[in-house]
From TrEMBL:
One of its GO terms (cellular component) is CAAX-protein geranylgeranyltransferase complex. One of its GO terms (molecular function) is CAAX-protein geranylgeranyltransferase activity. Transmembrane segments: none annotated. This is Protein farnesyltransferase/geranylgeranyltransferase type-1 subunit alpha. It holds the Pfam family PPTA. Belongs to the protein prenyltransferase subunit alpha family. Its EC number is 2.5.1.58, 2.5.1.59. Keywords: Magnesium, Prenyltransferase, Repeat, Transferase.
Length: 344
């Protein structure tokens, strides 16, 4: 009988005698032979065979477990496993533990996070008709899980993206997530991922109302004073005055504190005094800490703000004092729309 240590090959398992293994066919086109282990070849030969048969059973579920332990990035195995789970009604909580153990070792594997999201979605369907406590427990567990991963790797892009999805999917409270980002930034004020998440939360759940702007400007100014050469906090600071509004005007609903399409001038945030305050903050900071003058981040910030200030001033003159800036997504591209060297 063929064994490798305590491993029992599939070709020697009686319950697999009805399956004819399917070897990998490279068509002789490979440049070099990959040195697969004997266990790897054996398991994948049987995997290809049952995949062709589309067998959805307990034994194929166990086989995918072994396949994925060998290669957690095998997206074909994950897709097949999801079909098996639905067919045999496998324990989703056990599956959550399985993928969680793999994420602990391979935390930057996209397939693992995608599978975890699928499990959470399926679990939420099962608990949808149950008590609210079940959904609360599920969401709390997911937040704790991402918290643990992010604590080990504060700039793990996949973990932050999963947390963002959890916040949206379960409608997590603003206060809870703001406290989380504040804790992360207290640990590392340079963590662009935490700044990114905070901006996402306030624009998604609160809207950039006047009170939110005041609170966030105060928050970021305190962090800038602590680390004046931190580009992440300066980007956040500038982004607070560049809300993503589809109608290309900075408008806030006075009743809901949400971004609105209303055209009433009474709801338009006048950015001129806001920009003036930002400029004064930098000037005061430079007066107190002379090293700030040599910092690139605040100087870049000043260029942005002065440019916007002049643009607004010019447009107001052209439009008889009613113009507003059409610039709406510069901050989106810089902070949200792509990975950058700071966070990835």
């Amino acid at each position: 009988m063929s064994t490798c240590g305590k491993h029992l090959f599939y070709r020697d398992r009686k319950e697999w005698n009805d399956i004819t293994p399917v070897p990998q066919d490279d068509n002789g086109r490979h440049i070099v032979n990959i040195a697969y282990s004997e266990e790897f070849v054996d398991a994948h030969d049987y995997f290809r065979a049952v995949l062709l048969k589309n067998e959805l059973s307990e034994r194929t579920f166990s086989l995918t477990s072994e396949i994925l332990l060998m290669n957690p990035a095998n997206y074909t195995a994950w897709e097949y496993r999801r079909r098996i789970i639905k067919e045999i009604s496998s324990d989703l909580n056990a599956e959550l533990r399985f993928v969680g153990s793999l994420i602990e070792e391979y935390s930057k594997n996209y397939q693992l996070w995608h599978h975890r999201q699928w499990i959470v979605e399926e679990l939420s369907k099962q608990t949808a008709n149950g008590s609210c406590n079940s959904l609360t427990h599920l969401s709390s567990d997911e937040l704790r899980f991402t918290d643990d991963v992010i604590s080990d790797d504060p700039k793990n892009y996949h973990a932050w993206q999963h947390r963002r999805w959890i916040v949206t999917f379960f409608k997590i409270s603003v206060e809870e997530e703001l406290a989380f980002t504040e804790r992360m930034l207290l640990t590392d004020v340079h963590n662009n991922s935490a700044w990114n998440h905070r901006f996402y939360i306030i624009t998604l759940d609160e809207g950039l109302s006047s009170s939110v702007l005041t609170r966030e400007i105060d928050f970021v100014q305190k962090r800038i004073s602590f680390a004046p050469n931190n580009e992440s906090s300066w980007n956040y600071f500038y982004g607070l005055l560049v809300p993503l509004v589809h109608n290309r005007k900075y408008i806030i609903s006075s009743e809901t504190s949400k971004l609105s399409d209303e055209k009433s001038s009474s709801n338009v945030i006048d950015l001129m005094p806001k920009l003036q305050l930002m400029l004064k903050f930098v000037e005061d900071l430079m007066a107190v800490d002379h090293t700030v003058v040599d910092c690139l981040a605040p100087l870049s910030f000043l260029v942005e703000v002065y440019t916007d200030y002049l643009e607004l001033h010019f447009m107001k003159q052209v439009n008889g004092g009613n113009g507003t800036s059409g610039k709406q997504d510069r901050f989106s591209r810089r902070l949200i729309g792509s990975k950058c060297s700071v966070c990835c």
